[in-house]
Amino acid sequence: MIDLTESEATEIDDFVTSHAMVSPVITAQNLCSINSCPDQQMYRARIQFLFQLDSYVQNEQGEVDEVAREVLIDLVHDAILFASDTQITYSKSIVFLTLYIAMLQQVIFQPYYQPEKLLKKFEHALLIHSVERPPSSSGIFDISDIKILQEFFITKFFRNAKMIQYCFTKRPILSFRTLSPTMIELPPMPALSEMEMDQSTLSSSAPESAKETASDEQKQPTSQRDSGRSSKSRDRSTTSPRGQESQEQQQQKPPEQQIPQIEQEEVKDRGPQVPTDILKETLSKMHEKFVAEFDEKERVLIGKIKEIEIHMGERQNAPAKKTTRKK
Fold this sequence. Notes:
mainly alpha; 68% helix; 2 strands; 12 helices
């Protein structure tokens, strides 16, 4: 395709609007600007903007699927590259790209895979632009153009129509979560074992016995009266069995009082109880995130596989070069 002046571009646009049976999706000046773009990034940005491709890959919330947009840009790029390689005129290229975008719309927005109906629509659209019979049809394409366009649509478009529909159509995703009508309390932690309790009581009673012996040594009698009183009290304590029982109870009380304190400290270390609803919500979110990442990777992988298949098909279809032997 050659560069155009403003007058030539307006003439081409007037011819397309008057003869084409469909409204053109791009003007001649915009198509010329896409072909003359030297930068690849700017080239893809112009395709995205001038063909308004974001409208085909938006969801209900207005969010754009970037992976689907890149795939759509590649599809339109292949169509533009085909038009430039075949060296057809700007008017034919505009009508061809318009039919290509119309077929993409049919594939993307129809809920079921119906290749026969899609092929009939394409053949009808191609025929009404190939026979000069106004106002029902116009002779924009020749017989040679029809053969080239039909081969392109069959090999590049209809062969991949099912994959295109799978990538772009909206699929229903069922997500659910379970809720219990009543709050389920977590079971209490088991009590300490006997060995742990014995070790804790021994470790706690050892410093207390050392303190008691030290206090007994400090509290010695300072006079004979004190010593006599102390001896009498000792005699009473040895003779009365109740005194022995009271002493045994006092010695046994500290470990019994320490056991619940140790259990309370361990209960405090457990932390707050987490309700099961929060755990189930986090698990469901993690599952949804995993499914979304898996779908994205699957789409990219399918696209790469199809690109490899296309390149392999082009290599197989390419004619083998004849080697001439030098005498």
